[in-house]
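The protein record filed here.
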Amino acid sequence: MHTSLDGFVGGPNGEMNWIQINEEMFDFVALRTNESDKALYGRITYQMMEAYWPTAAQQPNATKHDREHGAWYNQVHKVVMSRTMQGKQLPNTTIISKNVQVEIEKLKTENGKDILIFGSPSAAHALMQKNLIDEYWLFVNPVLLGKGIPLFKNIQEMVKLKLQATKVFPCGVVCLHYGRE
């Protein structure tokens, strides 16, 4: 998840125009996405992704990232946390509308690769509140927003983490990878 140095994942109105991203970061993230077979989203992020990724690789101006991430997106199983999408049947997609803790714990016990959460601050907050996130991959952008959507919210108990790795990008973004202690 991208965050500002002062801990915001979106501006006051959810704006993300301050996020720095480039081909080197795309390649770095591709290594991570290739280790996963499930992508978890909140409704808003899922709808943004669905509007772009299914056909991104077929566009005439498709970049290397569009082709690679588009192929991954089209094959990965999507999990959407949403009360308003309850009961919808979508291909290669599971909707979780209630019993979030139980449903996520079930997903975590299934055979397969990792589950990645992309953006989705509200979904991330709900998972943090239930202590369901095992690793944090934070892309700290060199900007202070002063206000906005916080990275961490409603943490119920202390969670000790251990720094696993760091990666500094030439643009000043630092990726911090933390796992549970």
In short: The chain has five helices and ten strands.
